[in-house]
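Re: that chain you flagged

S.,

Sorry for the slow reply, it's been a week of failed gels. I finally had a moment to sit down with the sequence you sent. For the record, here it is as I used it:
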Amino acid sequence: MSMQVGMARGLAVSRLREAKLESPGLEADLLLEWASGMSRTFLHTHPEKELSEDAWRRYREAIERRCGRVPLQHITGATVFFGLPLEVAPGTLVPRPETEIAVETALEQFPGGFFVDWGTGSGCIAAAIMEKRPDAHCIAVDCSPKAIFTAWRNFRNLGLLSRVLLWHGNDPWKLPVRSNSVDLLISNPPYIPDSQIPFLMPEVRLHDPREALSGGEDGLVAYRMLLPWAFHVLKKGGLVVLEIGNESQKQAIRAMAAFRFEKMLRDYSGLARVLVLKKERV
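Prediction finished late last night. Pasting the structure tokens below so you have them in one place:
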């Protein structure tokens, strides 16, 4: 059974709206583009176009999965971050627009050199920095084998593999990094207090890996582990760029760190989101 594009989209929008998705029209378009292989512009200007039976089946299945709150990026297997096309797979944190703020902030003060991306996930942060800084190279670290594999595929697809060492582990002191040798540490670590995880939106709570979310009782476990090591390996003048969860975490991190506070940036909702620290002494 085939279906005209316009009718298929209308049915999808209604179904997504019933499921209380925030942007049913946009998501219906993106999934139709993915299922059919045709551009959104073509689909909107040719509502009479017949979808193939296979495309209509793929579209129906995708809409039902999305209504079940499977992230759109997990359905399509792809996303765009900082203008870069990336693969996204189950078991890997879906890159968020807020994380682009951390990348923009790092690029403002990082002309190139050696950096560490702690908790690389899909590799989005490291890829974005290396794409903008051709002489930069890095170690991209994650404790998840699934994330490491996804990051490897993204670095390969973007032609960046020769400039990155992928490291599987969760102990920074085991990294092959000398003291006073790193120009930048950037990280979107797990920072959500465990008591808050059950209240997250279903796409995050059910589908993002828990190890990429759980920051322990107060959300600060990763920072306590990373900051002493960062002070050891960063050069004088080196930067730490951290994604954080809220204002109180900013205060706690500043209190525990032997760095100079540079600035704090807010996300698109006005929440404290990115913290920048600098190492002033060896």
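What I noticed first: Residues 12 and 28 are 6 Å apart (CA to CA).

Talk soon,
D.
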